[in-house]
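Notes taken during the Thursday session

The instructor put the following on the board and asked us to keep it in front of us for the whole hour. The protein is Sodium/proton antiporter, CPA1 family. We were told not to look anything up and to reason only from what is written here. First, the residues (417 in total):
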Amino acid sequence: MISIFDLAALLLTLSALFGWLNRRFLRMPHSIGLLVMGLLASLALVLADVVFPGQHLYEDLTRVLDQVDFTGVVMNGMLAFLLFAGALNLDLRALRDRAVAVATLALLGTLVSTAVVGGAFWAAGQALGSPVPLAWALVFGALISPTDPVAVLATLKNVKVPEALEVEMQGEALFNDGIGIVLFTVLVAFAAGKGGAATSAGGVATLLLHEAGGGVLLGIVTGYIAYRAMKAIDDFPVEVLITLALVTGTYALAQKLGASGPLAVVAAGLLIGERAPRYAMSDTTQKYVSALWTLVDEVLNSVLFLLIGLEVLVLRFQVSGLALAACAVPIVLVARLVAVSAPVLLFRWGGNLSLGNVPFLTWAGVRGGISVALALSIPESEAKPAILAATYAVVLFTIVVQGSTLGLVARRTLRAR
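Then, after some discussion, the predicted C-alpha cells were revealed:
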C-alpha cells in the first residue's frame, strides 16, 4: 500500500515528464498530448508484460492505479477546482446575452441526446449480438451526452472561434453536466430496479429543481458572502485563501444538502469573476488570484488527462463488447448533431441560435473525465463492461480526434458562413 503522497508524486512526475516530451517532440495540444502519451505508455506496459513476463511492470503500475478511486478523485476532488477556474474567466455579461442559447442547449440538447444515444445504443447491441437492456442503454446516453466542461475548456484554449460562440460553448459545458448527472442518477435507479417515486415525471422535475436550482442558489449565496468579505479588506494572501475556501466549502456544503456541487461552484465562480475584479480586488490581488487559478487549472488538467490515458490499464473490457464500443462513436456523433440541430430549428425565431454553428458545435462536443467517472460509478451488472468500453471509446475519440482537429473544423465551417 503506497501513500497518498507517493501517488501524487508519481502522477505529477509523469505529468511533468510527458508534458516535456510532448512539448519537445510531439507538439500536440498539452492536454491531448498527455492523454495520448498516457495511453501509449499503458499499451507499452501491456506489450512489455507479454514480452518480459518476469518483470511484472504491468502488474506493479496496475496495483498502484487500483488505489486511485477515479470517480472520487474527479467528482469529489478535481471537478470543483476546475469548474471554478473555468467560470472565473467567463464573461457573465456575454453569458447573459447568450442565456437562451445556453439554456436550450444545456437542457433540451442533453435530453434529446440521451434519448437518441440510448435508443441507438440498445438497437446496435441487439444487432451485434451484444444486447444491453434499454434502461442501461439510456444510462449510457445520460452519462455520455453532456459535453465535459473540463475537456471543452481545455480544447478551446487551442482554437480561435467568435467570442459569442465560445461563450455559448463554455456556458453549455459548465451547466449541462448538472442536468446530465440528475438524469444519470434517476436512470441508474430505474435500471437497477430502485426507482420508485424518484423516477416518475414529478420526481424527476423535483430532483432537477432541488439539485440544479438549489446548487445555483447556494453558489450565489456563498459567492456573495465571499465577495463581501474580499471587499472589506485589501490583503491578497487572505483574499486568495477566501477563493480556495469558497470552492471547497461550497462544494462540500452542496453535497451535504443534496444540491448540485458542480453548478454551485460554477455560480460562485461567475459571481466572483464578474464583481470582485471591479469592486473588491486591488490590482495586486487580481494578479495573484488569476495566477493561482491559472496554475490550478493547468496542473489539475494535466493530471486528469494523464489519468484518463493510464486508466485503460485497470478497466476490464470484454472482447465481445468492442464492436459495440466502436459503434458508440458514430452514435454519439449523430446524437450530438440532432441535439444541437433540434433547438436551432425549434427556436430560430429567438435569434440566439444559428444554423451555421451546427457543424462546429457538433464536432466540439468533447467528452472527458466526468463521463468515465460516471461509468465507473455504475453498480455491477451485466451491462457495465459494455458501457465502460463504449464510454472509453467515445472519450478517447472526442478528445484525441475531435479535439486535435477542432481548429481545422472551425476554419472550414465558420469561414464558410
